[in-house]
Amino acid sequence: MNISVVVPLYNEEESLPELISWITKVMNENKFSYEIIMVDDGSNDNSWKVIEKLENENEQIVGIKFRRNYGKSAALHSGFNVAKGDVVITLDADLQDSPDEIPELYKMVINDDFDVVSGWKKKRYDPFIKRVTSKLYNGTSRMVTGLKLHDMNCGLKAYKLSVVKSIEVYGEMHRYIPVLAKRAGFYKIGEKVVSHQERKYGVTKFGLERFVNGFLDLLSITFITKFGRRPMHFFGVWGTLMFLIGGFIAVWIIGEKMFNIMFSNTITRDITDQPLFYLSLTLSIIGVQLFVGGFLGELISRSSSDRNTYLIEKEI
């Protein structure tokens, strides 16, 4: 099979018939063998009934329905689990992503050997505030992750099948699938300018909280990518540094106290009356806690069930 199209959706009953018709037209024109995996993320409208009707008309459609709303990451993960095509294409169900981009994305993966191709909505039909916050978010993501992608959160992406079978998308990590792919050893990640359509039906499912969640997820994915299997390298370094600074301050104020007593005959405050003493104590305690946290993290990491799960590319 050439292509698996994974479509996560939530309350998109109006757009589904047009979307399926559009995808089918593109596939038939390019003579692709394909499947369309539609994952209903707990919709409370008639989306599932529409999917059932479309499935009866088109045998290439695969439907998955969640009992409740779990989020886009869970929907993509479920779609990836059942995908069988050589290339997996993801796009949103709101008709803002154009299926006409699929043939070129497929060629970039198959002919140019990209592991991941991410869409870039260079010209967006979104409100001004959303465009500005998106640029800020993507700029921060490029700086932190090192991936030079202009539109990390674009729903239109293409993957080799081996990529989606090698990563686990959870929480709200759908925004950072290219980062997860890079972490798994897939380094050839490209980008393609894609067209962006104005929303035709319904309303957006994301509010301003997506930007707060996106920033927190960025911190999480950065830490997991760099220190997920070696937490002591983060907590241990900072813990040791704070403990040494606290110890140095303690030695300094004790030495100063002894010097004044022995040589200057001046009356000085008790060590416990000095602010530096409490700063030293606080830093030492935090340092020990960070070091212990790193040690416990190492124990958990080394005892986890997937500690020896490594991706093997080839065997002879």
Radius of gyration over C-alpha positions, nearest whole angstrom: 26 Å
Shape: elongated
- Give the neighbour order of strands across the main sheet: 3-2-1-4-6-5-7
User: Given this structure, which CATH class of the largest domain is correct?
Assistant: Alpha Beta
Low-confidence stretches: none
Instruction: Count the beta strands.
Output: 7
What is the CATH superfamily of the largest domain? Spore Coat Polysaccharide Biosynthesis Protein SpsA, Chain A
In the CATH hierarchy, the third-tier topology of the largest domain is known as Spore Coat Polysaccharide Biosynthesis Protein SpsA, Chain A
Largest sheet: 7 strands, mixed
Number of helices: 10
Q: What structural class do helix, strand and pairing data support?
A: alpha/beta
Reported CATH architecture of the largest domain: Alpha-Beta Complex
How many separate domains make up the residues? 2
How far apart are the termini?
Answer: 26 Å
Average pLDDT reading: 85
Instruction: Assess the beta-strand content as a share of residues.
Output: 5-15%
Spell out the helices and strands N to C.
EHEHEHEHEHEHHEHHH
Helix amount: 40-55%
